[in-house]
Amino acid sequence: MKAVTYLAAFALSASALVSQAFAEPLKGWVADLDQALAQAKAEHKAVLVEFTGSDWCPPCKMMRAGVFSKPEFVAAASKKFILVEIDMPKADAELTKKNQPTVEKYKIDGFPTVLLLEASGREFSRFYASKYPKTEDFLKHLAAELDKKDLD
Predict the structure, then answer these.
(1) Which residues, 6+ apart, have CB-to-CB distance to 33 below 8 Å?
(2) Tens digit of pLDDT for each residue in 79-119?
(3) Domain 2-151 in CATH: superfamily?
(4) 73 with 89: CB under 8 angstroms?
């Protein structure tokens, strides 16, 4: 019986650590949209905002592991975008509460949703990130969306 108790305690501790790790912003990403918009104005870039449920959403976890955390993605996307992650984790009620107004402002209805914004904050594209599960495909889509924006 003690072994089962210890095993359960270990499993809960490990899952809490993993959930907490997912709640941390990725390297090369920021978690503050206002800061990102100011930086985008200063650097003449657009803003890529990913809305995620890092500790409960399977497609979000897939995109984080397969695309968003990859150094090659961050390096390439950062040339034209300030990268922002707005997380709605179940394990961190305080962070979810902090990010809820942003989710409501942009009428996010599913995860992982990506918004592309001009430095002014005007949205020029919206799509589900999981539609592009490979780094190369995601980067091609970003380039195409920038090209379309520039034609407007």
Answers:
(1) 47, 49, 84, 86, 102
(2) 999 999 999 999 999 999 999 999 999 999 999 999 999 99
(3) Glutaredoxin (3.40.30.10)
(4) no
